[in-house]
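Sample pair:
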Amino acid sequence: MTSSRETHPMAELPASILAAGAGLSARGIRRLSLMLALTTFVLIGLGGIVNSTGSGLSVPDWPTTYGRHLFLYPPSEWRGGILYEHTHRLVAALVGLLAFVHVLWSWLALRDERFRWFRQVSLVSFLLVILQGVLGGMTVLFRLPTAISTSHAMVAQSFFAITLLLALGTQRTWYVVPDIAPAVRARILRLSAAVWLVTFVQIFFGALTRHTYSALAIPDFPLVFGGLFPPAEFLSSHVLVHYLHRVAGFALAGLMVWQGLQLRRIPLLGPWGHAGMLIVLGQLLLGGWVVWSFRAAVPAALHGIVGTGIWAINTVIFFQAWRWQWLARQQHGS
């Protein structure tokens, strides 16, 4: 049976936060961190719906909505693409508010030096959400340019990863390391790092595919113009972007299956690995559905949402594996 060794004075997280938090409860910061991460996931999903339905310019001005304040736009006019885009903006405002409350709470309440990293990460998340808001406005004002739209998508995923780190940092499991052989722990870290990096690259190619309108540049799936490689006569920038997205997708699927098998007996991470194996295989089918349906809104939106879920799974696995390795080295050096 696997045991766990406490390696940090904050292993008993609730008591530590109560001591350092000037009367603010650990449960509160934990719930706020989880709410920030969950709301960010919803926001990214809504962004995918906006893109999949072609609603990015349904509201042509920013930061106002048809000349009115964001919060004063009448619900009676929330129809069609306006519904998706305006809802996306409202949830974005909520995420910004949560990030502001989080950084304020962290810096005013968690004064203990053991929480310095948490305060700094919270500040980074707040700065990122400001940048993301500006990029979101620029996508509208400059009429969806590829570079800005793709940057908007990638900063969103980076911000989401930061919120997941904050949520992990409020869990007791963040401060304990299970009794795993050092060689196994190191192997898990290397594999999870590779999977995490490939996932980020795949998300980048996915964003390029969306924002260069290359989803149907290759009209068949799983083959490519009836073969494995695009013929020279059909090769173009759109075909190349789409093809790289597919190649990265299949590579990621293989890596995640291998990762899931390697994690099957690892405490805490095993269920994440198993979920990743199943979800990434479903994601391949969703990618095919996008092509077979000629990029219908439903499969396109689901493809983006599930992709974000895969990013979340691999981020949690990598961050936790890295943390275990760091804690083990700290313990060995103490």
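The chain has nine helices and two strands.
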